[in-house]
Amino acid sequence: MQTATLTVAAAADLRFVLPEIVSPFQTLNPDVKVEVIYGASGKFYEQILRKAPFDIFLSADKEYPFLLYTKGYAAEEPFQYAEGKLVLWMRKGLFGERKDWKELLTNKKVSKIALANPQHAPYGKIAQTALENAGLWEKLNSKFVYGENVIQAFQFAEGKNAELAFIPLAIALSPKARNEGDYVEIPHSFYPKILQYGIIVKKAANLSIAKKFKDYLLSEESQKTLKKYGFCP
Amino acid sequence: MDWIALWLSLKLAFWTTICLYLLGIPLAYWLSFGKKRQWKILVDSMVSLPLVLPPTVLGFYLLILFGNSGIGTVYSRLFGKSLVFSFEGLLIASIIYSLPFMVQNLAGAFSLVDSKLIEASLCCGESPWNTFFKVIFPLSLQGFLRGTVLSFTHTLGEFGIVLMVGGDIPGKTRTISIALYDQVEGLNYQEANTTALVLLLFSFFVLFLVYSTSNSQWKRKNIFV
């Protein structure tokens, strides 16, 4: 019997890993129905400010959850559930052998580079920081195309509308991306740590279930699943 | 196929159409038979605005209107929940969005009714109410049918406003077009294909139904041939 619904607003980079955490959680808690909505973290931040009926918000960064916390929208302190990595993704065989990320970006074959919109998508922001640190942001400015979130950025590259896409490692490790493409990791020296935090929304319909889900997300089992998808806390 | 989303869309389209009858019939009646010409142009322009306005513009204003000021506050005080991210919010948005599809078709049909017939009915002592049901309504059935079908299908397919005001909440505001978007975002192209195909076939079927029952269109064409 399903008696309660838990609504989770999750960052787009969790699209492929979260179902593997939700489904065992459902088995353990058959009375809870978990609904997950995926999107850009910044959009969810805005929606929570407008009182969206989410119970849990899993952001792709640290900033949005803490902003919500200080504004009084969180039931308790934000919690870290993952650490993400940024990669540069390309279709298989487009560039021959794997190269250095900076070489790839400045390759003559590259006419468009996709990234999530830095305005509201944490991985877009991180990509911008990495590019700025590499001194390439200004230089490549005319080649950027922005997706609403990281999945859309990936779709640009997958659909041949861009040669390269900045995406989270978690997306690059999804079956589809692995079948069709290749990636190079952006060295950690070029961007700050991507600490992914979440909050339990203060107006959660069922606080105890939300807490249960949070505990399960932080459990060893879930963390193992996250690791499998390139999240290394 | 996301059946919950499809059911939600059908429910939304149904209630929008019902509300549009209540709002659209008097409005179209006034636009066709009313006297004040200057006001008519103003109202007509306002009603038709959603036809040319980008849905996101409408969505943006509704978001503000439904938010922490004005209508939204009154609503949440009365009913204890917010209009944004709710079915009721989507319903109000859809009514505004689909209003021209109902009103324009109704008004167009009303104005085609021969005024002599209306005058005759009134002269024979029938009330305006009876005249409407016995003369105007039967003669403008075609407009009713088109207004109904277009309002219904446009609500079914609306995306931009729903995304802005609704927020993609399963079972509450995730309509079928949002579900399609979500399937594409999940790289689930096969399911997206099914959803898109169902919507395409439905839309075609509905239009086919309308055109096949409206042979008056062909008759009218023959006059000019």
Short summary of the structure?
Chain B: GO terms for molecular function: molybdate ion transmembrane transporter activity. Chain B: Keywords: Cell membrane, Membrane, Molybdenum, Transmembrane, Transmembrane helix, Transport. Chain A is of the alpha/beta class.
Any chance you could write out the topology, listing elements then pairs?
The complex is a heterodimer of chains A (233) and B (225).
Chain A lengths: L3 E8 L7 H10 L3 E8 L1 H9 L6 E3 L4 H8 L8 E6 L1 E6 L9 H5 L7 E4 L5 H12 L3 H4 L3 E4 L2 H9 L5 E5 H4 L2 H6 E5 L8 E7 L6 H12 L1 H9 L5
Parallel strand pairs in A: 1-2, 1-3, 6-7, 6-8
Antiparallel strand pairs in A: 3-10, 4-10, 5-8, 5-9
Chain B lengths: L2 H31 L3 H16 L2 H12 L4 H9 L7 H26 L2 H9 L4 H12 L1 H17 L2 H7 L9 H10 L3 H25 L2 H9 L1
Helix pairs in contact in B: 1-5, 1-8, 1-10, 2-5, 3-9, 5-8, 5-9, 6-7, 8-11, 10-11
Descriptive account of the structure:
The complex is a heterodimer of chains A (about 230) and B (about 220). With about 230 residues, chain A is α/β, with parallel strands linked by helices. Helices cover about 40% and strands about 25% of the residues of chain A. Chain A has eleven helices and ten strands. Chain A has helices spanning about 20-30, 40-50, 65-70, 100-105, 120-135, 135-140, 150-160, 170, 175-180, 205-220, 220-230, and strands at about 5-10, 30-40, 55-60, 80-85, 85-90, 115, 145, 165-170, 180-185, 195-200. In chain A, the strands form two sheets. In chain A, strands 2-1-3-10-4 form a five-stranded mixed β-sheet, sandwiched between helices. Chain B has a single domain (about 5-215), classed as MetI-like (MetI-like fold, Orthogonal Bundle).
Strand order of the largest sheet of chain A: 2-1-3-10-4
Rg of chain B from C-alpha positions?
Answer: 20 Å
Oligomer: heterodimer
Number of domains as seen in the coordinates of chain B: 1
Specify the overall morphology of chain A: globular
What do we call the CATH homologous superfamily of chain B? MetI-like
Structural class determined from secondary elements of chain B: mainly alpha
Largest sheet of chain B: none
Provide the structure class of chain A: alpha/beta
Please report the total strand number of chain A as a whole number: 10
Q: How far is the N terminus from the C terminus of chain A? A: 35 Å
What is the 3D form of chain B?
Answer: globular
Q: Quick one: CATH class of chain B?
A: Mainly Alpha
Number of strands of chain B: 0
* Main sheet makeup of chain A: 5 strands, mixed
CATH architecture of chain B: Orthogonal Bundle
- Termini distance of chain B? 46 Å
Helix and strand sequence of chain B = HHHHHHHHHHHH
Strand proportion of chain B, as a percent range, falls in under 5%
Order of helices and strands of chain A: EHEHEHEEHEHHEHEHHEEHH
- Number of helical elements of chain A: 11
Family (chain B): Belongs to the binding-protein-dependent transport system permease family. CysTW subfamily.
GO cellular component, one term (chain B): plasma membrane
Protein name (chain B): Molybdenum transport system permease
Function (chain B): Part of the binding-protein-dependent transport system for molybdenum; probably responsible for the translocation of the substrate across the membrane.
